[in-house]
Design brief:
Length: 151
């Protein structure tokens, strides 16, 4: 099994505005870092190499990131122990809080690329029911066996 994740955020301004430059100016760097990170399998991207132009919600200010990783630990290492953490710490500078879950993880069969509809459903499930083996976050992770992972 491999770990899939979706992360959405609502931009405070159009992506090409100066207010978003601190975020958009580092997208290529962070995506390239993900691509070579141990455990990385796949990420959603368009012809330009990122997912910023991919609109999957009615609100055009919502940006999406979706990827697949070998396991929970390799993804956690990328998120919290690489340059990615700098963007994570600055997210309030570029994004407004959402009332729904903005991040979800779930397990997929090896070699499976999750669909956008599946990913959106995972966010809805996490919002409505909380963490479970079907959709979880870093606060309440579950292993590929469906059992909660103890920290």
């Amino acid at each position: 099994m491999q770990l899939a994740q979706i992360n959405i955020a609502k931009a405070i301004a159009p992506l090409d505005s100066p207010a978003m430059a601190g975020f958009t100016g580092r997208i290529d760097e962070i995506n390239q870092l993900a691509d070579i990170h141990d455990g990385f399998v796949w990420r959603l991207k368009d012809d330009s190499g990122d997912a910023l132009s991919i609109s999957v919600f009615d609100d055009p200010t919502i940006v999406i990131n979706m990827s697949v990783w070998r396991d929970l630990e390799s993804f956690k290492q990328f998120v919290y122990y690489s340059a990615h953490l700098e963007l994570l710490k600055g997210k309030r500078n570029w994004f407004t809080p959402l009332k729904q879950a903005h991040f979800a993880m779930w397990w997929v069969e090896d070699g499976t690329i999750p669909s956008l509809e599946e990913a959106k459903a995972k966010l809805k499930r996490l919002t409505a029911l909380g963490a479970s083996a079907e959709a979880f976050d870093f606060r309440s992770p579950h292993g590929p066996d469906g059992q909660p992972v103890l920290s």
